[in-house]
Amino acid sequence: MVQPFLLSGDISDPLEWIRHHCLDNIHTPWAKITIPGLSWAIPVTNFSIMAVLSGLVVFALAYVAGRRPAGSMIPRGVLQNAGESLVVFIRDEFVRPGMGHHGDKYLPFFCTLFSFIFVTNLLGMVPIPMIGGTATSNLGMTGMLAVSVLLVSIFGGIRENGIGGFIHAFIPPGLPGWLVPLLFVLEVVGFFIKHGVLAIRLFANMIAGHLVVGAFLGLIFVAKAYWVAAPSVLLALFVNVLELLVCFLQAYVFTLLASLFVSGTVHPEH
Amino acid sequence: MMTLIPLAALGAGLVTLGAAFAIGRLAQASVESIARQPEKAGDIRTTMIIAAALIEGFTFFALVVCQGAAKN
To answer: Which one in A56, A104, A167, B65 has a CA-CA gap of 20 to 30 Å to B42?
Structure first.
């Protein structure tokens, strides 16, 4: 079963079957979506398929978990209870400590963010032939996630505090007057940099795990010896299990930092 | 043209050294404070994860710069 798949790629590159898992096949798209009036086509790669797939999985799970008989607030069954504990976890760990009860209207955003990143990371660990891949190990994907966080912190801050209050949040309280212009520029630049680093952190963490697995398995092809194979496979297995932890931890860290950034503009120090 | 790959590799090594030192110090301090005040373990762990994630993000930023230098 596995043999034709393993041999299907470029035979001169034995790591191809692991590399297609980490790197986007942007140069060999499965299909192209052409839009009339646009001169370029949207390529459909394995990463875009996986991103849509995990979106559908999250939507289906959330739909089933959120369905309840009319007038009843009591969750029934495993999935509904799991969904409730996830939402309560995100509310009590991320949203309430930073934003208080006002933050509850941002709760759906953080729930979506957490569950989408978590499911995308986990689906990346499943070796699906041909279309498998970790969609979050693409800088474009994580960049869009970070841009959505950026938009929520900008427009959330403007909605809660007005434009003046939003700009005022960039001036740290208790400064001597001559330092204000300098620190204002630094804070504005830092605001964009910290959202950009949010994208790079998720991207680099997700790609690094797969590259380490690939490097350990690559030792077998470099040494071409049986005594290398056993420790390589064991180490790759160890890194794979570690990746499962990293999948959760990165979704946790991304949502935690996103909630910190949003609360920094929605409820600034004053 | 001179290749930048050795310099980029050296840079990646230096970045990793600094980040490992920083996260090690961070973990040391938080383990010590959890041992001293186990009832504060939850708060300390969250603060530790935030600080570790910030260090890590910085590190990955530098590593991406190193990778970009190696490609040229």
So the answer is: A104
Beta carbons of A256 and B56 less than 8 Å apart: no
Whether residue B49 lies within 8 A of chain A, CB to CB, comes out as yes
Please give the tally of structural domains in chain A.
1
Distance from CA of A267 to the nearest CA of B (A): 19
Residue B41 near chain A (CB below 8 Å): no
pLDDT digits (tens, 9 = 90+) for B16-59: 999 999 999 999 999 999 999 999 888 898 889 888 888 988 88
Q: What are phi and psi of A31, to 5 degrees?
A: -155, 170
Q: What is the CATH number of the domain that holds B67?
A: 1.20.20.10
In a domain, B6, yes or no: no
The reported pTM is 0.83
Place of tokens 């963010």: A113
**What does the alpha-carbon distance between residue A250 and residue A210 come to, in Å, rounded to a whole number?**
14
